[in-house]
Amino acid sequence: MVLNEKTMKHETTSFISLKDSIATQLLKTVFYFYFILTVVVTLTHMSVELLNTKKQVEQELKIAAHMFAPGLAQALWDINFDQLSPIFLGIVQFPSIVGVKVKNEQGDNIGQIGMILNNDGQVVEEKEDGIKILITGYTGLFFYSFPINYEEEGAKIKVGEAVIYSSTKVVFNEVKLGFMMIIANAFIKTFFFWILFLWIARKKLSKP
Question: Are the C-beta atoms of 60 and 77 separated by less than 8 Å?
Answer without folding.
Answer: no
